[in-house]
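Subject: sequence -> structure tokens, single chain

Hey, anyone have a minute? Need the predicted structure for the following. Not urgent.
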Amino acid sequence: PSCGSFKIYDGSFTGKLIDGEGITASLLKSNNIKVYNEINYIEKLK
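Reply:
Had a minute. Here:
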């Protein structure tokens, strides 16, 4: 997805994830907006 912050699908439509970030996540980060996924968001709450 465009919002993937650490893992994205490889484009083969097989459900395989690879390291990387989506376009939206990249744009947000480049504008100094913090991007969290479902794992590191919970860690930040602790």
